[in-house]
Structure formats: C-alpha cells, structure tokens
Amino acid sequence: MSTIPSRSELSELALDTARRCGVDVGSLTGDVTASSPVNGLPVASLTWRDPAYVDEAVTRAGEAFRAWQRVPAPQRGALVKRWAELLTEHRDDLATLVSIEAGKITSEARGEIQEMIDICDFAVGLSRQLYGRTMPSERPGHRLMETWHPLGVVGVISAFNFPAAVWSWNTAIALVCGDPVVWKPSELTPLTSLACHAVLAQAIAEHGAPEALSQVILGGPEVGRALVDHDGVALLSATGSTRMGRAVGPRVAERFGRSLLELGGNNAAVVTGSADLDLAVRGIVFAAAGTAGQRCTTMRRVIAHTSVVDELTDRLAAAYDRLPVGNPLAAGTLVGPLIGGAAYDAMTGAVAAAVGDGGVLVAGGGRVHEELAPEAFYVRPAIVRTDRQTAVVARETFAPLLYVLPYDDFEAAIELNNAVPQGLSSSVFTSDLAEAELFLSAEGSDCGIANVNIGTSGAEIGGAFGGEKQTGGGRESGSDAWRAYMRRATNTINFSGELPLAQGVDFTV
C-alpha cells in the first residue's frame, strides 16, 4: 500500500484540483469542515446555505425555465455537447476529486466521469428524438396525436457514492428536455459538486444561456427538505436510502409534484451448476468489493447451487485475500476506504449478527491500516457463508459484505433472490439457456435490472436505471427515462368542418 497522504498534502491537492475546474477556492471559507475518507482528515472549510436560500434558487430557476423552454431542443443539445467537451478536458481533475471525497480508486473515479460524458452524448442525440405519436382517430377529418413539452424546475438530491454521475444523469437529460436543475449534493462531497457545477457553468456562459439553468446548493438535511417541499420544483429526483425515500415520496406527492426515487438495493447473483466459475468469480468480486461495497448495485448475496457452492466459496475467499486495500489514489489499489466510521460500525455489526445466526466468516472483515490512518476506515471485504437468508442477510448493509447461500432447485433460487424488500439489480451465471430465460421472465427476477453472466454493477447509460419495491420504482439515464422530465399533451385536430363526437355521442342542439 502507498503511504496515506497527510492532511496538508490532500487538502492542497483537492483545492488545486478544484481551482483548475473553475472553482473560486478563495471564497471557500466557513465553519463547516469537509473531510476525506482517504485519511479521515479535513480538506476544506465551507459555508452551508440555509433553507431560505432554496426559495431564491428555485425562483431563479423558474425564470430561467421560461426562457429555456422556448429554445429549440437541438440548440439545447448543443450546450450539452459543449459540456461533454469540457468534461473531457477536466476528466482527470474531476476524477481526482471523486477519489479524495468518495474514496473511489482512480479507475472507478475516471469511469464515473466517463459516465457523465456518455450521458451527455446520449442526451445530445436525444435532443433530436423527443418523439410523440400520431394515433388514428375514430372521427373522420380528425388527427389524434401526443406532444411532449418541458416540465419545469428539476430538483436533484444526490448521495456520496456517485457524487458526479447521478447528477449528470438528471442534468443532461433535463437540459435537453428544457428544464433547469437545482442540485443539493451530499454533504460529504462538496468540492466535487462545486467543480462539476463550475464546468457546466462555463458551457452555459459560452452559449449565452440563462445562468440559473444549473445551480448547486451546499447545505445540510434541512436544505434537502426545503427542496423537497418547494411547490416550484416540478420533479424531485432523490438518491439515497429507503428510509430517506419513505420521507421524500409522500412529501412530494402531498404537493402533487413528481418524484424519481433511487433507493436501496440488496442485490444477488444466482450461480447455477452449469456456470463458468472463472467468469462468475471475476464478476462477483468486482460487483461485491468494488467501490468498497458502497454502490447501490453492489452484490450483497450469492445464491449458489449445492454442486458448486463449496468450490465457489473457496475461490471467492482466495480472490478476496489478494485484493489490495489502501490509498485509492495509489496505483494498484482495488479497494479504497469506507466513507466513515458509521459504515464501519454497520459492517462489523452485520458480520456479528450473521455469525450469531449461524453464519461462518470465511474471508475478511477486519480493519486494516489503522496505524497509518487512524481517522480513516479501511477494511478487508468480507464473505459470510450461511445456510439461510436471515433478517440481517435480507437487510442492506452499505459496505463490502457478501453472503453466500446454497440452493438445490432453480425456482427456489429465484425465490431467494426476490425475498428481500429491495428490487434493484440481480444476475444469473449459467450456461443453460432455459435458466437464463426463466430468470429474465415475468416469473424470474423481480428487479429493475436483471443480467446474465455479468455481475450486478456497472450499468451502461443506454438503459434505464432503477428498481422496484423499496428501491423506489424510478428510472434515470437512458432508454425512455427522459419522459419523466417532460409533460405529455394529447392533441386532437379537427379539419373536417363538422363536429362529430367520439363514441357516437349525439348532442345536437
């Protein structure tokens, strides 16, 4: 492991990097400390906004909306194209900030910024494809069609684990759909948020577009609540825990706003007796240990056929023992730190509960590098072998903790996959076409994402992202997720000169 950077080294790196992205770091003064999970020490001091500022921001965004909705969609796409070019220029800088504030290894952090560039590319193409439909009318001389129009101000509340990409999913699509965005980022990743916003602000300025098309508000939970409750926010996209979603959803619904919720996941892979175990091990290790187990799509359960479960467990344990854990900015590191002490406590508590329920810890679980970084929380990813899906197994633990369970019957494996409150991502490793098709069928996985012979993580932007049940039911990113950011109107045009009524109604006066 490379030496953990000191407080001054990491702070200087963070501020210099943010400055290169366009952030006025000289103005970053305040009584709120932003720390890095890399060493657990402060990197910057900032000022949080109070909830009253949300109303000012939403008002400005509403004014920007009235101008932006009149701009043709392909011209809106041109702004997003320029944003993608600037993101490409600043890819390494933004990735460095992601590593510093979220603890991601360099390749994953760069991948997150690449995801931003990719969704911009998708949105640029989308700007010429906001299609409606023309339907046959039952009345002679009539045309029936639907049109899509900009919706209004979009509020985005994002989480620490994807401090840049999730905002960009919403923002790139919202901008081409004609909507401004007000962003309340995680309190844990403020410099990343400011840098991302600064890059987009440059594109907005170059195009002469309304400055308030993109706004970022640093603040605590009370700022998020103000954004949730504001009548001027037409769509509220929130990423976080299921507990957070239980609070956000009803509050937005009470004011008849729209919400797009991306919440918890307890994702599983079924490994059948016919699976290629070499492929399965590679897919499982990345999905379960990547991002230190802090993705919403992290694999948390492996449901393996009894004929392969022992060999698979041994292979996974051996692979876990080889995982380099340490400074995410250092070459060769594959597992960075947990975001903080609460995540570590949750992981150790879950391991203890699983072992208490009869499980066996077969790999990892301990804290490492404590002497080098006593304020940071580096752990070895853990594997617990268990014969049953207990309450702790069915509960999401946001850390690198993987449970391995056996099964005999494929239908029983599907039932285990589905027998958790969450429904985000799932996969099956098999060489049997019938098993693959059954897993993808209506009788198979009940998740929003169901994969064959890959893990549960690493979704591409072309598909709609989201899940079912306590995952929230929202869809972001690709496919037709753009419809959430627009309003639909059904139009009937009468060019007949007569006035026949639908369904044969006669109302002659």
Automatic annotation (TrEMBL):
Keyword Oxidoreductase: yes
Span of domain Aldehyde dehydrogenase: 33-488
Family: Belongs to the aldehyde dehydrogenase family.
Keyword field contains Oxidoreductase: yes
InterPro entries to which the protein is assigned, alphabetical: Ald_DH/histidinol_DH, Ald_DH_C, Ald_DH_CS_GLU, Ald_DH_N, Aldehyde_DH_dom, ALDH7A1-like
Keywords, sorted A to Z: NAD, Oxidoreductase
Organism listed in the record: Nocardioides soli
Subunit record text: Homotetramer.
Organism taxonomic ancestry: Bacteria, Bacillati, Actinomycetota, Actinomycetes, Propionibacteriales
Transmembrane stretches, start-end: none
Enzyme class: oxidoreductase
EC number: 1.2.1.3
One MF term in the entry's GO annotations: aldehyde dehydrogenase (NAD+) activity
Protein name from the UniProt record: aldehyde dehydrogenase (NAD(+))
Catalytic site positions: E262
